[in-house]
């Protein structure tokens, strides 16, 4: 399933963005 790694990558990217937002705040 190639969809799994892609989903994980997107999730990781989303988590990174959330961490950045929290850091800015």
Notes on the structure:
The chain has 25 residues and is mainly α. It contains one helix and no strands. The protein has one helix at 3-24.
What share of the residues lie within helices?
Answer: over 70%
- Average pLDDT level: 86
Strand-pairing-aware structural class: mainly alpha
Poorly predicted regions are none
Strand content: under 5%
Tally of structural domains: 1
Major sheet characteristics: none
Overall radius of gyration: 11 Å
Work out the helix count: 1
- The total beta strand count reads 0
Task: Please give the alpha-carbon distance between the first and last residues.
Answer: 37 Å
How are helices and strands ordered from N to C?
H
Choose one word for the global shape.
Answer: rod-shaped
Secondary structure blueprint with pairings:
Elements: H1 3-24
Brief rundown of the structure:
The protein is 88% helix and 0% strand.
Observed structural traits:
single chain; 25 residues; mainly alpha; 1 helix; 88% helix; rod-shaped
